[in-house]
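Re: Re: token formats

Sure, here are both.
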Amino acid sequence: RGLVTSALQMSSTAKKAPGSAKLDTAWEDLGFEFRPTNSHIQIQHKNGEWQEPELVKEPYINLHIGATALHYGQACFEGLKA
């Protein structure tokens, strides 16, 4: 929760306009390729509450086979056929 709360407090106190950040690198030179990292933060939502952030070293996530994100394209296709 501390990480989430801190991010929320930071965003509410900064009061900067979107897109006003100064970059050290030109936008077109940033690159949007896959960049492997040694970990990521995972925060789960259980029983109506956010759990504590957890640093996860493995590069994989568990995703339910019925996740709507996986089936959105199929649903659109079926809708167009109807």
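Second one below.
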Amino acid sequence: MSNRILPLELIDKAIGSPIWILMRGQTELTGILRGFDDYVNLVLDDAVEYSPDPRDGSVVVKKELKSEILLNGNHVAVLVPGGGPEDSLASRG
């Protein structure tokens, strides 16, 4: 029998580590995961938001969020512990 891991257990293992978050739409965030709840609302430190410029979609807008943030889990599409691939918005920002 294989070892199963539940989704919230995987997120729990990522606490204190860098995480890459793809939001609904085209926004991405990176930061240090500090906590979460059963609804996957996330608390991040050192968060940086990456989004395409509305006037020129080929340009990535990088916005450093200087304080601790609470991210609504309803808007989260994908969580990647450890960071993202080279073709992400975050790697171009």
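The chain has a mean pLDDT of 88. The beta strands are 18-23, 28-36, 42-52, 60-65, 69-71, 76-81.
- S.
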